[in-house]
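user: can you give me the structure for this one chain? tokens are fine.
assistant: on it. calling the predictor now.
[tool input]
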Amino acid sequence: MATKTVSIVTGGNNNATVTASEINAIATDFIADGVVGAIGLNTGSGGTGSFAVNAQGTPDMTVRVSAGQAYITATPSGGSSQRIRVSMDTYEDVNISANSTGSTRYDFLYLVVSASALANPGANKDDVVTLTTSRSTSSATDNGTPPTYGYKLGVITVANGASSITNSNITDSRTSTGAAYLSDGAVQTIDIAAGAVTPSKLDLDPANTQVTTSGTTASTSYTSTLSGSTAPAATVTIGSNGILLVIWRAQSQNSGANNNHTSVALSGANTVAASDNYCTLNQSTAPVTGYGTSHMFTGLSTGSTTVTMNYRVSGGTGTFSNMEVIAIPL
């Protein structure tokens, strides 16, 4: 039989030493590498947030790295791989070496964890994390001397003979730390970087309408007109993702052995006719039966869009009641 244990024992007769890897386990299991907190990327006018890399107020051959916190995966000498939370309590200036090679070079700027110092830090523990540059001939891949355990903060373009570094020379590489999860056996990351989710992209302002009064139709083509009732309709604003999830349900019966169909149509900023491609189909003379379905519309235009339930029958007269439509922009 397998032995089951917990990794941290905090008290009792056989209390155990708590190792760094056990303390860091939750970060290793669930947190991805990245900087902590909101960030604004340097797109030529400066960056903000943890470990932002910016030019000096009076540009010279140094860049200024802001204070901050970050998570970096590293393996202490003789230890196991874990995700380390590192901090820097104030800014630090990093020198960018002159370039006299005759061609443009690229300095990859890293936040680096020392494996040996992580296992055996100095008295002040300030030797574990450093800021280091690696000069490369490629802006896409570091072919210089990349560190073993480093988190890339940015890439600095250094022209031949450059005498100063400006924000336009800095390509920000930071991402905000996100949640890591398992999918098909592989660790993936959900990275919510600055500006990745905005109200215009992710509206999430759903709407729904329910109509309980029964109505009838004998139309064999889709219609929103019911005798004795009104088709439910919901109006939402489509965001720039152009995605809309619609859910609808109803109860129905038919005067004969015929099919009752329900579907939805879009109007307003988007015009989409009701279709059998995503309809419900129900055959019932008695008793009344309920059913529902859903459909995701993609490639829509931004703007106010109304979703209206539509009906048709293959024959006879269909009676529809307890109808509801739910519209969720994504």
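assistant: here you go. The chain has two domains: 20-190, 207-329. The chain has a mean pLDDT of 87.
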